[in-house]
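ok posting inputs for the NAI job
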Amino acid sequence: MSYDLIVIGTGPGGYVCAIRAAQLGLKTAVVEKRKTHGGTCLNIGCIPSKALLYASEKFEEAGHDLAALGIITDKPKLDLAAMMKHKDDTVAANVNGVGFLLKKHKIDAFFGVGTITAPGEVLVKADDGATQTLAAKNIVIATGSDVARLPGVEIDEKAIVSSTGALSLDKPPARLLVIGAGVIGLELGSVWSRLGSKVTVVEFLDRILPGLDGETAKQFQRILQKQGFEFHLGHKVAAVEKQAAGLQVAIEPAAGGERSILEADVVLVAIGRRPVTEGLGLEALGVALDRGRVVIDDQFATNVAGIYAIGDVVRGPMLAHKAEDEGIAVAEILAGQHGHVNYEAIPSVVYTMPEIAAVGATEEELQAKGTAYRVGKFPFTANGRARAMRHMDGFVKILADAATDRVLGMHIVGAGAGELIAEATVLMEFSGSAEDLARTCHAHPTLSEAIKEAALAVDKRAIHI
Ligand code: FAD
Ligand code: NAI
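and the output
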């Protein structure tokens, strides 16, 4: 079997790359070791977590927020099995959809572990041991990432879980201890907190969500604390011991100091993810790695001719849409076009309630670079639609270049932030200014008016505050 392109891994990076390549006329095959397509994102990541976040948010709303709107209900009851079925059905529909799209584009799909035995040659080993050798002019590695482990804390996916186990618990644990105040810890912590768990988070650094704008992270931490989260910042987990009454978690100050003990029924290890390269044969081929990630140039090419890499397995944020855009770009490059990803304008969203969304630079990054900037902020308490919806937590913050007024970053805490950030991303793609935003008519009453007001605030002329 001979192809123009073989893509190893059918996560958001790989399957999107294959579809774009097929659209451009390349004879394309994919190799996937999982039984279904869609990778981490569709099977055990973005999609199942968002299904549970949505359902648990509704549960929380039904229990606490409806009376203020004049809707009196009985105390809602949790049918966790039905909630999990909603999640599983959502996953099934999505992964089957990818299978359909691959067929529609006449992409051959091979199931099994792919190993690059030589440039232009991929060996596929199926679960039953059967092997097959495929040939291709080019190969794209899109093998993604896996859970990072904490030495001495053995994940059994029952009492000590990774994100995968935390998406399938059979009951809300009375006490959930989360290691790591990153995106996974706060999203899945929110799910179980809403369903009744007492959530405690132990974080090595002295802040939550590293990489997020500092002021935004601080405000969000306060909101989570109001929701019942307890944080032990600047602490690390030294040991987790299983006892008859539950888990004993020993924590220590990150800088060293006295140990203390926290008790939990379930521990979620959410300290990051690591790139997946094992079994690919990269060492024998001499493909360069940097701290486990495949090294690529600005054309997504590795140091070995004909081998490219994209997504979580290469540098940059581990995000599905970043992987997808890289997949499109590399397919276009291989078809002789000029594929490109603008890394300055990759949005990120934390799907909690309220949501956090950001694109571009943080204040800390601008300060470190010595860029002079102006800040415009507008709180949702002063937005009519937010009041009508009783979603007044949070703000919009715009950072604009002091000299040119070009928007360099936008940070939103608030209901619907994940949808609102698209406006900022488009603006930044077109190198737009705060003045451009401020002079754009925004429908009333919408949450997006808070963006217009924040843009006006950059020039100290917000109307509603
Ligand atoms: P992956 O999706 O990891 O896919 C890689 C594929 O390669 C896998 O299917 C794997 O089986 C296969 N593979 C690996 N090695 C081989 C081999 N040798 N042969 C054959 N196949 C192989 N990102 C967001 O943007 N938004 C979110 O809301 C979000 N939520 C998340 C929630 C959770 C709980 C987790 C864990 C992650 C989340 N992410 C989210 C991150 C997102 O899932 C990843 O950034 C994204 O999946 C990366 O895509 P990828 O194609 O690079 O790799
Ligand atoms: P993360 O990198 O977001 O956060 C990990 C946190 O754990 C950090 O705050 C880190 O300081 C802390 N930590 C590391 N070692 C520790 C230790 N020993 N003790 C205590 N704390 C420790 O990683 P996370 O949350 O596991 O997510 C992995 C990736 O998945 C993220 O990079 C993210 O890009 C992606 N993801 C994206 C989502 C989204 O876009 N909504 C949702 C979920 C995951």
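notes: The longest strand covers residues 131-141. Residues 8-14, 31-34, 39-41, 45-46, 49, 113-114, 142-145, 163, 184, 276, 279-280, 311-312, 318-321, 323, 351 surround flavin-adenine dinucleotide (ligand 1) (CB under 6 Å).
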